[in-house]
Design brief:
The chain is α+β, with helices and mostly antiparallel strands. It has a 15-stranded antiparallel β-sheet that branches. The chain has a 3-stranded antiparallel β-sheet with strand order 24-25-26. Helix 6 runs antiparallel to helix 7. The longest helix is centred in the last third of the chain and has 24 residues. The chain is globular and about 75 Å long. The two termini are about 50 Å apart.
Length: about 625
C-alpha cells in the first residue's frame, strides 16, 4: 500500500502502541503522529494527528515506497515493511514494557520509552529520519541539543532524550533530520525516553540496550497472550486480538479501561462532534466485564472493577454517581478547547477534558451493579464500605429512576425519559436483589428495590413500546428509533423471542442500518441531539444487533451483521468508534474500546447460540 502523509491519512491508517501507561499512533508512512507521556491523557509530545505543526517522528525510506504492516504474533509490537525499487526496509515499533513482572503486571515497570528499530532485509535502502518534538499539544518548540549518541530536547515540563545512531542536522525551528544507507542484514535501533524535569535526566541508550528493551517487550506481550487463550469459538483470533487491544487500552497503575487512545477524532469530517475519550466511562464497565471474561482476562476484569468501585465510592448519601472518571480516579474532567490546533482534516474544535462528566445519566447505576454481579462470590468478604456503597447505588436507582436524564449517548438539550436509562435502573435493582444476601441488605431495602423494579417494568412495557413505530423507541412517547433498545434482550429484561423485541430488531435492521449493514445509534437531524451535523454508523450498535440476533436464535443473520462490523477493522485488526455510512471510512476516536468490547461479546453470543442449536438438533 502506498504510504500517506499526515494531511490525508485516514484514521484507519494508524497502528496502536501501548505500554499500559501511554499510547502512540504510527502511520503507514512510518510517522509517529500521536504520543502522550507519561499517561494516556497527558499532553502530546507528537500531535501531527491533529495538526501538522504539532510534532512527529518519521522513520522511513528517503524515496517512494510501498508499505505493508502487521503486529508481531501475540504482541502489540508493530512491524512495517517498506518496499522500494532498491530494497526492503523493516521498521519495528514498540512502547517498552520494562522488565517482566509476570503477565498480570504487564507494563508495571514501563520506562516511558518509545523504541524504533530499522533493518534492511533485502537490497539497500536510504533511511530518512525526521524528529520534530512539540510538547504540550504543539505549544512548545523545544531547543534540540546534539550529544554523542543522540539529541536532548529542552523546553516544556519534561526532558526528552533521543538515542539515535544516525548523525542529525538540527534546524533553527526545532527539527532534526538525517539519512543513512542500510544494506541487507544491517539494522539500527532508536529510542525516545521521557522524564519529568524533577527527575534525573533520561539516559541516551546504546544499541544493545535498546535491542534488549525491544526483546523484553515482545516477550512480555507474548507471555500475556499465552496466558489468555481461553476462548476457542468462531473468530477466535479476532477475539484474542481484541483482548490484547483492551489490555493495551488499560492503565496499569489503576486498572482503568479508557474509551480510546485519542481526543477529537471526529464523528463527521470537518464537523464539531469531537470529544476527548481518554477517560473511563462507568457504562463501559458491565460490557467490559463480559468481554474480559470471554477473552480470558479475569484478573484484568477484577482490576477494572476495583478501580471503578474505588473511583466512584463516596460516603455522601445524596451524591450522584458520575458517568465517567479520569484513569487515575479523578472526578474533575473540565473540558477546554485548543484553538491553536487545526484538527484532523480541519475538524474543529480540538478538545481536552470532557464536559459530559457533569451530566446526569441514570444508566450508570445499572452498569456498576451489573459489574458487581460478576464478582458476587467475592462480595461477602469485601470491604463493608464497598457493600454499603453498592446498597446506596441501588437505593439511588430506586429513588431516581422516574427522573428524566441525558441518556446513554450524552445528548445535549433538555432531559428526557430515555428507555435505556429506565432499563438500566431496572438492571440495577434486579442485580441488587440477586446480590442482596451477599451485600447484607435488610428486608426494608429488598422491599423498596422489588417495588421499584416492578414499577420500572410496567413503565417500560406500557410507555416504551411505540405502537405506530412498531418498536421500543428512544424515549417514552417518542417515535424515534434508537439502537440502545437492543440492550433489552442483552440485559435479560425481555427474552429475545418476545414479539416486541423481534419487531424492534426488524425495525432497527430496516431503518437504522446503512448499505454496508452497519447500525446508526439514531437518525440525526433537527431535534435529534442538540448538535449540528451528522455522524457515522456506530460499530458497537452493529455488534449489539448481532448479539441480539444470536439471542433470538437468528444465527445466520447474526453472522452477517457481525461480519459487516468486523470488516471495518483496519489491516491491524483495530476498530474505530464509527464508520462513514457511504464510504465505510473510519471515524471517531481510535482505537475504540467499546467497539472491541462489542466484537468479543457478539462473537461469544453467536458461539453460544450455535452450540445450543447444535445440541438441540436431532442426531
Amino acid at each position: 500500500m502506498t504510504s500517506t502523509s499526515t494531511a490525508t491519512a485516514s484514521i484507519g491508517d494508524y497502528g496502536l502502541l501501548s505500554d499500559r501507561h501511554s499510547a502512540a499512533l504510527v502511520g503507514r508512512d512510518g510517522g509517529v503522529d500521536w504520543l502522550c507521556f507519561p499517561r494516556f491523557d497527558s499532553p502530546s509530545v507528537f500531535g501531527a494527528l491533529l495538526d501538522p505543526g504539532a510534532g512527529r517522528w518519521s522513520l522511513r525510506p528517503a524515496g517512494p515506497a510501498q508499505s505493508t504492516r502487521e503486529y508481531l504474533p501475540g504482541t502489540m509490537v508493530l512491524r512495517t515493511a517498506f518496499t522500494t525499487p532498491a530494497g526492503t526496509l523493516e521498521v519495528t515499533d514498540a512502547l517498552a514494557l520494562g522488565p517482566g513482572e509476570g503477565p498480570h503486571r504487564l507494563g508495571a515497570g514501563a520506562p516511558h520509552l518509545l523504541i524504533r528499530s530499522a533493518a534492511c532485509s533485502a537490497g539497500e535502502v536510504e533511511l530518512a529520519v525526521e524528529y520534530c518534538p512539540r510538547p504540550e499539544y504543539g505549544l512548545v518548540v523545544p531547543v534540540l541539543r546534539p550529544e554523542d549518541g543522540g539529541l536532548r530536547a529542552r523546553g516544556g515540563p519534561a526532558a526528552l532524550a533521543l538515542s539515535c545512531p544516525v548523525p542529525l542536522t538540527v534546524t533553527d525551528n526545532g527539527t532534526a533530520h538525517g539519512t543513512i544507507t542500510l544494506r541487507a542484514g544491517q539494522s539500527l535501533h532508536f529510542a525516545l525516553q521521557w522524564a519529568p524535569l524533577a527527575a534525573p535526566r533520561p539516559r541516551l541508550l546504546g544499541q544493545e540496550k535498546i535491542a534488549h528493551r525491544l526483546a523484553e517487550t515482545i516477550t512480555g506481550w507474548r507471555a500475556w497472550s499465552d496466558g489468555h487463550r481461553g476462548y476457542d469459538g468462531p473468530w477466535a483470533e479476532l477475539v484474542r486480538h481484541s483482548g490484547r487491544v483492551l489490555q493495551a487500552l488499560s492503565y496499569q497503575p489503576s486498572g482503568a479501561l479508557l474509551a480510546a487512545a485519542t481526543t477529537s477524532l471526529p464523528e463527521e469530517v470537518g464537523g464539531e462532534r469531537n470529544w476527548d475519550y481518554r477517560y473511563t466511562w462507568v457504562r463501559d464497565a458491565a460490557l467490559a466485564m463480559d468481554a474480559l471474561w470471554v477473552a480470558a482476562c479475569p484478573d484484568e476484569a477484577e482490576e477494572f472493577f476495583t478501580f471503578m468501585a474505588d473511583a466512584a465510592a463516596t460516603a455522601s448519601p445524596g451524591a450522584q454517581l458520575q458517568i465517567m472518571y479520569g484513569i487515575g480516579g479523578e472526578h474533575d474532567l473540565t473540558e477546554r478547547e485548543l484553538p491553536h490546533l487545526r484538527g484532523w482534516r480541519g475538524s474543529r474544535p480540538v478538545r481536552v477534558g470532557n464536559g459530559a462528566w457533569r451530566q446526569h445519566q441514570l444508566d450508570v447505576y445499572g452498569e456498576l451493579l451489573a459489574t458487581a454481579a460478576r464478582f458476587a462470590d467475592r462480595l461477602p468478604a469485601a470491604d463493608p464500605a464497598l457493600r454499603a456503597f453498592l446498597i446506596r447505588l441501588a437505593d439511588t436507582a430506586a429513588a431516581s429512576w422516574h427522573q428524566p436524564d441525558h441518556g446513554i449517548w450524552e445528548i445535549c438539550g433538555e432531559s428526557r425519559h430515555y428507555l435505556h436509562s429506565k432499563l438500566m435502573c431496572w438492571v440495577a435493582l434486579d442485580r441488587a436483589l440477586h446480590l442482596a444476601g451477599r451485600l447484607g441488605a435488610d428486608d426494608h431495602h429488598r422491599r423498596i428495590w422489588r417495588q421499584a423494579r416492578d414499577r420500572i417494568r410496567t413503565a417500560i412495557e406500557t410507555k416504551g413500546f411505540h405502537e405506530q413505530t412498531g418498536a421500543f423507541t428512544q424515549s417514552f412517547g417518542s417515535a424515534r428509533l434508537d439502537a440502545s433498545a437492543l440492550v433489552l434482550p442483552i440485559s435479560g429484561f425481555l427474552p429475545a423471542s418476545d414479539p416486541r423485541v423481534l419487531a424492534t430488531l426488524e425495525q432497527i435492521a430496516a431503518r437504522l442500518t446503512d448499505r454496508h449493514g452497519l447500525v446508526r445509534r439514531y437518525l440525526t437531524g433537527p431535534g435529534a441531539d442538540g448538535l449540528p451535523g451528522e455522524e457515522g454508523s456506530f460499530l458497537l450498535c452493529t455488534f449489539w444487533l448481532a448479539q441480539a440476533q444470536a439471542l433470538a436464535g437468528r444465527t445466520a443473520a447474526a453472522r452477517t451483521t457481525f461480519e459487516a462490523a468486523a470488516a471495518c477493522a483496519n489491516d491491524l485488526g483495530l476498530l474505530s468508534e464509527q464508520a462513514h455510512p457511504a464510504t465505510g471510512e473510519a471515524l471517531g476516536n481510535f482505537p475504540q474500546a467499546f467497539s472491541h468490547i462489542g466484537l468479543v461479546n457478539a462473537a461469544w453470543a453467536i458461539h453460544q447460540a450455535e452450540q445450543t442449536a447444535s445440541e438441540a438438533a436431532p442426531a
